[in-house]
Design a protein that fits this description.
326 residues, Rossmann fold, Dihydrodipicolinate Reductase, domain 2, 2 domains, 6-stranded parallel sheet, 26% strand
Length: 326
Amino acid sequence: MDKINWGMIGCGNVTEKKSGPAFNKVANSALVAVMARDIEKAADYAKRHAVPKWYNNVDDLINDPEVNAIYIATPPDVHLEYAVKAMRTGKPVYVEKPMARNAAECAAMNAVSLETGVPLFVAYYRRALPYFIKLKELIDEKIIGDIRLINISLHWQPYDEETGENAKPRWRVFPEISGGGHFHDLASHQFDFLEYAFGPIKNAKGIARNQAGLYKADDIVTAAFEFESGVVGTGSWCFTVNKNQRIDEAKITGSKGQITFSFFEKYSIKVETENGTEEFNLPYPEHVQQPLIDLIVKQLRGEAVSPSNGVSGERANAILDMITVR
């Protein structure tokens, strides 16, 4: 492929800044068509982002002869259906995370990719962000020695729309749409990066419960996990704390020190060893998916290899499944 002409399914918030504009900022790439079920929403998005075509039918967008690659930016319940349709037309697919509602749906997507030979990529963009590239370098360089333990704490207050007499929670906390709750949405990023940095997780167990009753999905999860390398980890995720207890912190403990970092909200990496403390500040780019999209475009042109694909994406879902199974 020479020029990658993207067709985008879904015009939600994630596409406004994180991903959508990046397709036109990457060399040899263009966003040429968008689709939303509401044609007025699709038209509005297209006009605001200078996209020449818009649709309200998935098949029309996938079969557009000018479109030669598909970006699926919908909730996970339709990822399998849309990805399979696109791959069976020979068009590479870039799908939002989580890759699907569960590992079985991911496996079905990967089976079609293998059968057709059509590439499948997943939007685990932390694998390409400078912040996390630096973090992986520090780990690989053994700046804190041999890794012993990883601990994750992600505790957030409920979103405004989840509380009050007129509460209207969004799709992320409806398991039939998302596969789970906020844990599935956010921890998928975390476990994907942890496997990228430390290798495969061979076993994971957890407790997932709903304590506050604000919606159907679990709102608290605790987990213990073990990597094939022997490194072990623990984590807690709670989405109903007081805002004053909000925390997004991860710690990697090694034989010679500790690294503290944030998966979502902070841009500093703190390294503590017997030689002292050093901090690295690496803000995210304007469009956080742009570095990964650039690598995907380069892979489709035969110039590079994307660090995130369907196989790695399925792994993240498999870990979520292991932790939340009842």
